[in-house]
Write a structure and sequence with these properties.
The protein is an alpha+beta fold and 98 residues long. The protein has three helices and five strands.
């Protein structure tokens, strides 16, 4: 099981707690985790990635094992600790302003 931690606004949208668990078939990548997340919670489609380009939304960041994975390839394997469920895949809402 893959553990995913969601920011407050996405938890409210999906009506879930801070952490959800998902089954991911095949390789555990950002793309496969987000595909599984959107399949289980269809209301999140378009909220994390653009509907057409599948690019990460500008004010969201992805972290795992204390590393920023936001600019990594969506098809790169996630760390083994995430794939085993020991560590969560974290979606964080970035803060902007001035």
């Amino acid at each position: 099981m893959i553990r995913v931690i969601l920011p407050y606004h996405l938890r409210n949208l999906a009506h879930v707690g801070e952490e959800v668990t998902l089954e991911v078939d095949g390789a555990v990548t950002q793309r496969s985790v987000l595909d599984a997340l959107e399949a289980r919670y269809p209301m999140l489609q378009g909220a994390i990635r653009d509907h057409i380009t599948q690019q990460r939304r500008p004010f969201l960041r992805f972290f795992a094992c204390e590393e920023d994975l936001s600019h990594e390839s969506p098809d790169a394997p996630l760390p083994e600790a995430v794939a085993s469920g020991k560590e969560p895949f974290i979606v964080i809402g970035a803060i902007a302003g001035g």
